[in-house]
Amino acid sequence: MHYHLRRFLDLWFPSLCLVCGRPLLLSEQHICMACCHQLPWLSLRSFRDNAASLRLAGRLPFGKAVAAFKYQKESSVQVLFEAFKYHGNSHLAFYLGAMAAHRLLPAGFFEDIDCLLPLPLHAAKFRKRGYNQAERIAAGMSSVTGIPVENKALVRQRANATQTKKNRWQRQVNVDEAFALRDAARIEGKRVLVVDDVLTTGATMAACGQSLLAASPASLHFFALGLA
Ligand SMILES: [Zn+2]
Predict the structure, then answer these.
(1) Alpha carbon distances (Å) from 153 to 83, 92, 208, 220
(2) In the chain, pLDDT over 70 holds for what percent of residues?
(3) Distance from the alpha carbon of residue 14 to the mean position of ligand 1, in angstroms
């Protein structure tokens, strides 16, 4: 937003930090610097051997996997996730994607990535929310890295809203049917980074990756904002 317009609006509607509620500085968005520093950021020491990659190990062949920070219930991270998942704050998803990319870029994470593929959202959920939060995160990453977002190659076929009530095996079966290639040529031979908001058991990410493998990408990599 234009600086002067933002300053004018701030006089009447001061923006508050989503976590601590203090008024934000003009240089801050959504979350103040202090709260941002206190987020439970995960180490970027290894892209191939870390807590995120362990969730996917053995499920499918892939290169790198990282999560930006730990997702804990009753924490500042949960406040942020609820804001972009359930309260319509799509700008926050974009902002967090950009923030994560700023951390990963100097570590060389994006050097061998050709496209960012947000985990598709089921059409019914998309209509309800108005946007795909994974797509907004990927768009934020793209704004920092210049790497294009690929959101036409893969679609989600069925909703799996009841997933949390099922055990790991049932979840695997459920999500296996959930993705379908729509345009394989878009990712054939590409180095693809799958982007999602949260990595839990890894079943959904792995199912997404399995569907992508049928399109013969050069390599597959995974990123999640939060590691539950
Ligand atoms: Zn704050």
Answers:
(1) 28, 25, 11, 14
(2) 86
(3) 14
- Domain ranges for the chain: 1-38, 40-227
pLDDT digits (tens, 9 = 90+) for 10-64: 566 668 999 999 999 989 999 999 999 999 999 988 999 999 999 999 999 999 9
Cα–Cα dist 29/114, whole Å: 29
Structure tokens at 34: 């202090």
Tokens of 172: 């695997």
The CATH fold of domain 40-227: Rossmann fold (3.40.50)
73 Cα–ligand 1 center, Å? 18
Query: What pLDDT does residue 3 have?
Result: 66
Q: What is the pTM of this model?
A: 0.87
Pairing state between β 219-227 and 191-199 = parallel
**pLDDT grade, residue 178 (50/70/90)?**
confident
The two beta strands, 179-181 and 154-156, are antiparallel
Neighbours of ion ligand 1 (CB under 5 A): 17, 19-20, 32, 35
Tokens 């930006």 correspond to what residue?
Answer: 68
Tokens (6 digits) for 25: 């500085």
> Could you give the 3-state DSSP secondary structure of residue 5?
helix
Q: How many Å apart are CA 119 and CA 208, to the nearest integer?
A: 7
Rounded to the nearest whole angstrom, what is the distance from the C-alpha of residue 24 to the centroid of ligand 1? Answer: 8
Among 132, 111, 144, which residue's Cα sits nearest to residue 196? 132
